[in-house]
Amino acid sequence: FMEAEMEKEDELLNQSLQSRTLAMEKVRASRQHLILVASLLDRIPNLAGLARTCEVFKASTLAIADASILRDKQFQLISVTAEKWLPIIEVPVSSVKHFLDKKKREGFSILGLEQTANSIPLDRYIFPKKTVLVLGREKEGIPVDIIHMLDACIEIPQFGVVRSLNVHVSGAIAVWEYTRQQRSQ
């Protein structure tokens, strides 16, 4: 009798695992072809906010420098479980260039969100379907050696006296603009 009960429980567990796997596959299949590279960021509220934004708008992946922050209480508070539903990969700062090279070979356009002399205003830029978006460090922005790898730099037109947005906010605006363009196609 005991054995029959255990087999029944095993069967139920298997069924629930299968339906969870199917649900996850469905979620993954409906993701956009947008990879956000946040490996240069180190402030937890920014990373957690970006995880939440990426999950809400179904980015395919978020790259961060150190995956151990996913267990941080502050991270979890701000991300509201986004990390459970969003593929998050660890790309240490030292591996960013290698990662971008690999994605370029896979047919992705590599974009940076940065104010440079050649930046294209966000509202005039047409995003390729397969996009990798690189965000800069909290204060210094994107380092020059990575800028050289980018296919384009985009910037958010700004009109106030303060000429910079928080990196999570600017990342979110860019992710939304990518999403808006994909939706209207």
TrEMBL record:
<dbReference type="GO" id="GO:0003723">
    <property type="term" value="F:RNA binding"/>
</dbReference>
<dbReference type="InterPro" id="IPR029026">
    <property type="entry name" value="tRNA_m1G_MTases_N"/>
</dbReference>
<dbReference type="InterPro" id="IPR044748">
    <property type="entry name" value="Trm3/TARBP1_C"/>
</dbReference>
<dbReference type="GO" id="GO:0141100">
    <property type="term" value="F:tRNA (guanine(18)-2'-O)-methyltransferase activity"/>
</dbReference>
<keyword id="KW-0694">RNA-binding</keyword>
<dbReference type="InterPro" id="IPR045330">
    <property type="entry name" value="TRM3/TARBP1"/>
</dbReference>
<dbReference type="GO" id="GO:0030488">
    <property type="term" value="P:tRNA methylation"/>
</dbReference>
<dbReference type="InterPro" id="IPR029028">
    <property type="entry name" value="Alpha/beta_knot_MTases"/>
</dbReference>
<keyword id="KW-0489">Methyltransferase</keyword>
<protein>
    <recommendedName>
        <fullName>tRNA (guanosine(18)-2'-O)-methyltransferase TARBP1</fullName>
        <ecNumber>2.1.1.34</ecNumber>
    </recommendedName>
</protein>
<keyword id="KW-0949">S-adenosyl-L-methionine</keyword>
<keyword id="KW-0007">Acetylation</keyword>
<comment type="function">
    <text>S-adenosyl-L-methionine-dependent 2'-O-ribose methyltransferase that catalyzes the formation of 2'-O-methylguanosine at position 18 (Gm18) in a subset of tRNA. Selectively mediates Gm18 methylation of tRNAGln-TTG/CTG and tRNASer-TGA/GCT. Gm18 modification can enhance the stability of modified tRNAs.</text>
</comment>
<dbReference type="Pfam" id="PF00588">
    <property type="entry name" value="SpoU_methylase"/>
</dbReference>
<dbReference type="InterPro" id="IPR001537">
    <property type="entry name" value="SpoU_MeTrfase"/>
</dbReference>
<keyword id="KW-0808">Transferase</keyword>
<feature type="domain" description="tRNA/rRNA methyltransferase SpoU type">
    <location>
        <begin position="34"/>
        <end position="175"/>
    </location>
</feature>
